[in-house]
Amino acid sequence: MLTWSAISLRVAVRFFSSYRRGSFPLSKRVLVIGSGGREHAIAWKLAQSPRVEKVYCTPGNAGMAMTKKVALVDIASHQIERLVQFAEQVDLTVVGPEVPLAEGLADRFLERGRAIVGVTQSAARLESSKIFAKGFMARHEVPTAPFEAFTDVKKALRYLQTQQECVIKADGLAGGKGVTVCGSREEGRAAVESLFAQGDFGVRGDGIVIEERLRGKELSYLALVDGDSIVPLQMARDYKRVGDGDTGPNTGGMGAFSPVPGVDRDLLSKVEERILKRVVRGLGKEGITYRGILYVGLMIVEGEPYVLEFNVRMGDPETQPIMMRLRSDLYDLFSALAAGKLSECAPDWDKDAALCVVMASAGYPGIYEKGLAISGLDTIEPSDQVSIFHAGTAWDAERKRFLTGGGRVLGVTARGETLEEARERAYGVAEKIRWPGCYYRKDIGVNQ
Ligand code: AMP
Ligand code: GLY
Question: Is residue 112 part of a domain?
Answer without folding.
Answer: yes
